[in-house]
Amino acid sequence: MILLLAAFTLVPLVIPALARVLGVRIFLLVALVPAAAFTYTLTQTSAMMAGAAPAEFLPWISQLQLDLSFRLDTLSWLLALIVTGVGALVAVYCTKYFTAAEEGLGRFASVLLAFTGSMYGLVIADNVYLLFIFWEATTVFSYLLIGHYTGRLASRGAALQALIVTTAGGLAMLVGLVMLAETAGTPTLSRLVELAPRGTTVTIAILLIIVGALSKSAIVPFHFWLPSAMAAPTPVSAYLHAAAMVQAGIYLIARLAPGFAGNPGWQPLLLGLGLLTMLVGGWRALTQFDLKLLLAYGTVSQLGFLLVVASFGTRSAALAGVALLLAHALFKAALFLIVGIIDHRAGTRDLRKLSGLGREAPVLAVTAILATASMVGIPFTAGFVAKEAVLSAFLEGAESNSPLGWIALVGVAVGSILTVAYSARFLWGALARKSGVERVRTFSENFWFLLSPAFLAVAGIVLAPTFDAVGSALAGYSSLFPAGEHDYALAVWHGFDLAFFISTLTLVAGLALFLARAPVFAAQSRIPATVDAGRLYQQLLRGLDRFAGRVTSTTQRGSLPFYLAVILLVMVGSVGTTLALNRTWPDSLLPFDDPAQLAVGLIMIVAALALAVAGKRFQAAMLVGVTGYGMAALFAFHGAPDLALTQVLVETVTLIAFVLVLRRLPAKLGKEHGSAHRVGRAIIGAAVGLFMAVVAVVALGARTASPIALALPGLAHEFGHGDNVVNVVLVDIRGWDTLGELSVIVAAATGVASLVFLRSRTDNLPRTPESRRRQSLRARLKPSREVVVAEYVPGVQDPSTRNAWLLAGRKLAPENRSILLEVVIRLLFHAIVVLSVYILFAGHNLPGGGFAAGLVAGLALAGRYLAGGRYELGAAAPMDAGKLLGVGLILAAGTATAPVLFGAPALTSAWFEATVPLLGHVEFSTSTVFDIGVYFVVIGMVLDVLRSLGAEVDRQQENESEALESGSTI
Amino acid sequence: MSASLALIAIMAVLFAVGVYLLLERSMTRVLLGFLLVGNATNLLILIASGPAGAAPFFGAEGTMADPLPQAFVLTSIVITFGISAFLMALIYRSWRLANADVVPDDTEDLAIGRRTASVAAEREVAGDDTEFGTRAAAAVSTAVDLDELERLQDQESITEQLKLQKLMDEAEDGS
Lengths: 970, 175
Prior knowledge:
The complex is a heterodimer of chains A (970) and B (175).
Chain A: H1 2-22, H2 26-43, H3 45-49, E1 55-61, E2 66-71, H4 74-97, H5 105-124, H6 128-146, H7 153-184, H8 189-195, H9 200-216, H10 225-228, H11 234-243, H12 245-260, H13 266-285, H14 291-310, H15 315-346, H16 357-360, H17 362-376, H18 382-399, H19 403-431, H20 447-462, H21 467-478, H22 498-515, H23 517-526, H24 533-555, H25 560-580, E3 588-590, H26 595-613, H27 617-638, H28 641-662, H29 678-701, H30 712-718, H31 725-733, H32 735-756, H33 769-773, H34 777-781, H35 786-791, H36 819-842, H37 850-876, H38 881-901, E4 911-916, E5 920-925, H39 927-969
Antiparallel strand pairs in A: 1-2, 4-5
Helix pairs in contact in A: 1-2, 1-5, 2-4, 2-5, 4-5, 4-11, 4-15, 4-20, 5-6, 6-7, 7-9, 8-12, 9-12, 11-15, 12-14, 13-14, 13-19, 14-15, 14-19, 15-17, 15-18, 15-20, 15-21, 17-19, 17-20, 18-19, 18-22, 19-22, 25-29, 26-27, 27-28, 28-37, 28-39, 30-31, 31-32, 32-38, 32-39, 36-37, 37-39, 38-39
Chain B: E1 2-4, H1 5-22, H2 27-48, H3 67-98, H4 107-115, H5 146-174
Helix pairs in contact in B: 1-2, 2-3
């Protein structure tokens, strides 16, 4: 069985390619696989009848209790024969139905085979989750098959509708299956039915599974998708909507019935819905003009019939149910295929447009009559045997004074009358000569086209006499039910009993109803359709659309302040509630750690409050700087010198960057406010502030275990060979964090550059002519002051020609130059760079490290830029910021990953010491290389900021003012 | 474990003012708010790291401040700088290109809200009475020409789409 399923899985993959070569003959290949499965199933008959159901098992995802577990008991055997047998015949039929020119032929053939495979898997699966997977697979494939005519609106709509309805049911079923399997403690289907647990959970689970089964089998209230699905090609309807997929729900009910038919709600619910479906379907079928729709409503009716019988829960009814299942598959598939031939030949399925087809196509007519005879239960057909069995089973139920038995008997009898009437209407509509309608044209019948429907229709007759043998084969299923007083046995003739009498009565009444079709039809059209499930579905979907739209338009306002406010309020509301209920408050609250904290804190609070009402940009920048420097002081009081150092440096660089941007913006801050106005925003702000205070207190209170930090100094000294614990943590112990952070910085720096360089990103800073010349090695040897000296005009005390302390000083406008600044920077620059290198290497044991060192070096560059302008920056940093960032990242990542090459875990650090003459005892740890990487990345970041927000902004400003000037002179 | 009220108070104020500014539409104020919230968060980590102590160096005397959160804060300080620089570049660009320093409403989001007013009504799904029509081997004279039907349907759906487009454009203009 697993081997066959593998073929069902793999062959569809090659079919689209083969279809291009083989054309419609591809369907013969498609028929081969189910035919093989059919043959295999037949060979297992004796084993199955002996009571030893062949089973196969292959572990798959055992953790999820999902294994490839298959079992071929009587019910599976019957269904497997039906789906593979009809599947093969439909595939043969397709060779004539389609032409090689059909659009999407390969896809169709492939999906059809895949569908057959999933159907086969569905009926033999013995694991509920596996069953569900096949179940959903049939849904998806049926979507593709119904939507085969991708260009037609009706086809696409019907496919989607079937998908939505059956998937919704399938989801409910999945929940039910999980509940059931969990309660019973086994996912094995046969075990589940044997155990048949009881209880509220099981009742709910079974109800949910029933929802899935009903949606699949198009039972009221889900019946509407089946007639819509008639937009599918007719072979699909014959297979999916008669023999295979729609019977899956019935199969599941029949599968569960031995264990759960006694569950509360089962019988009244299924009996009620089944009868309702039978009557609604039959009633609607009487009003159809499209033969295919007539059959579709007939199928809905028959599915309701099947449901009533399969769910009834007695031994006789169970036997009758499986017999009916078989008979229905045979005659209904045949009838659909016949309709396909009619459409293929006459170009219409409308019975008002067809006339005289019976005489023109006698073989077709005979086939149709045979199949219909089985459908209405004319004696000596399979349908007759099944119907007799059903009526006898219900009579037996009624005799035992069960009201349900009476209801079922009467309901089914009325339903059968409708069945006879619409069957007669079908035959009349398809074959009869009608006055006033043009007769169909003569056309020869094709043997291969007729083969499949004829085979099925004849099988419905030929099988009937053998039904006592069939019955003994099927007894394996019905014997799962408790034995009654006198159990029914299938036979082609039971004599003139009560069941036969009822059966004959329904035939007569049905024919009478057909003959009186004109007044009946008039009466029907006068009764308005009170509930139209299809329209309800449409309204539901439309309502859902509208609801989604309304929700979207109320929540997605497009306003960032609004979104942020909502997020913050939810945070305060939800986390705040949890916090209020918690029990980890700190032991005590100190007013302060250090009196100086109070002073600094007061300054910071005042600055922050002033910031809230600050109206000017520079004022705001300064105030935010105050809070930043205050942070540095707080860090220092807390015992975090590294943080204090870094904070001071970062604050300075931030301030410089801020000022660089602000000079291009108007001095006053705009008056644009957020969605929440001043008071609202203040309330949200205060709430968040208070909330965070509580968070801090609770977090501190939760610090009860001794922190891992106690071990860190020892680790840092012993393994990291550094005394500065924070630095060793950054470059060694938690180096991955730092590596991630470096990536963020590189991304941010690149982002800054790409935002400011509006058109192209020039990688190199502008240089003065001399520095550009210095790029070649030879030129570099020349005295660098040459150009400056050449332009020096002695005796003229003009500041613009004054000799420069800095390389590019003269490039600045005279009024922008500060000789004092130039001198100071000139004197300090190299010293600061050396200092930064010292901080870098000392950082392992003293406060400092790559971050602080990089910021110091960056500040040195910022000084050069502020004193000498953008040309000066180009001269000071002749290297591209992007390259610095890249080199830094490579160094850090390389240090992190290099140990892997030596078989050590990533980020393992190595340590060397040596005595070098001149320098003395030198220690070196590879984590220092990591820190150098950090150093480069930070310098690159600062340089990128200076280059973009400084130099490039300058250039743009100069361009603009130049353009303005030239504009005014013209 | 005891907490320092002073630190908590500073943090709360920084958060409060930070959020107040973040909820503004002026991008510069948003940046200021971001800086304040960044500082406040660093402070939160510091508070949660336990009481103050000696600087975390090997061989330090007395109770040592927890070094691990300090490493986190150090990382966070530098990242905050990176993000602020990015925000500054955004502000500059927005000012230069649009002469605006505001966070505007997202027009796409607004358009979604409007569009729902005219959700196209899904049509009733009804099939034709044939798959072959005039293409059938011996078609009856009343058979439907499917190609013609398809063409008409296409035309209809195009007209409908144009109508919808026009409605949306009008909604856009109206805003």
